[in-house]
Amino acid sequence: MSPYQKMKSELRRSPRTWLVTGVAGFVGSNLLELLLHLGQTVVGLDNFVTGHRENLEDVMESFGGMGGRSFRFIEGDICDLGTCLEACKGVDYVLHQAALGSVPRSLIDPAATNRSNVDGFLNMLIAARETGVKRFVYAASSSTYGDHPGLPKVEDKIGRPLSPYAVTKLVNELYADVFKRAYGLRTIGLRYFNLFGRRQDPNGAYAAVIPTWIVNLLKGEPCSINGDGETSRDFSYIDNALQANLLAVLRTADADEHQVYNVASGGRTTLNQLYRMIRDSVADYLPVSAHLEPIHRPSRPGDVSHSQADISKIQRDFGYEPLHSLEDGLRETLRWYVEKLHGTAPVDARAEVSIKVV
Fold first, then answer.
1. Of 137, 194, 155, which is closest to residue 312 (Cα–Cα)?
2. If you average pLDDT over residues 168-187, what whole number do you get?
3. Which residue out of 4, 165, 192, 337 is catalytically annotated?
4. Measuring CA to CA, which residue among 196, 193, 249, 190 is closest to residue 8?
5. Which pTM does this prediction carry?
6. Fewer Cβ close by (within 10 Å): the C or N end of the chain?
7. Strand 17-21, strand 93-96: pairing
């Protein structure tokens, strides 16, 4: 039995109370669903700036409406300390996912990004300290590596931030470290690398590339690639992040210092490879998409050229192992979006959608 399986068995035997901030978002709603499936009590906090009520409704539907008995939702903003204190009362663990994401958004409006990601983050730390939260696990970011050229990315080697968003995520790590050393609040940061999966928003100017491409191709519409497409990323399926969050909370050995961990698959895929993988998979459902070529646009400021995680630290300390490869994750993600758009699985689902790295 893996450490993750053991941890889930322990939670079923001994339920806890959790706060998930950003609960109506991509990662937050998936954490909510997992925790409710494990019989936990969950408090959720969201202001619906980037999260969606539909995500919460989708989770509740998966329980036939019964999941609400163990779920209390607070509509509010982490920029208000009183709201944070209310949300943290009686909570054992905090999974802090609330943030104003997106590098391009932060370049357009750095003040808004700072308010949510720095002021709001500090409010949550204060609230967790004041209410006696046992452990505070938060969403850090691979953007913290900045202009450091090394590959794969190792936790203790970072460069200069390339965007206001990256600055805020670095500040989160500094604050979390201070609260561990000064107040004894047990804090752990999880540096997510290019997460994707069910409930990720495909719409809007700041949508992530995978859901955007899947939905565009399912509609027979062209996709855009920033730059020549040879930039590379460590794409990681959502279930890998869920595993990391729960393992971080329930780790048996408590480090003397605040720690950060890479959460990823440990691989590297170019945008050109990714596009072909998604296009060929969608073509099994919508053949016309097989001939769609991407539109190349100028590279975006603030983006790094290449990113790949060294996951040896989280493997060693948590017993973490990626649950899904990129191919498996894309297969599951495609099926979810097809069902949401068309109410049916891909026509060849019985034979499994074929996804290959090219």
1. 155
2. 97
3. 165
4. 249
5. 0.93
6. N
7. parallel
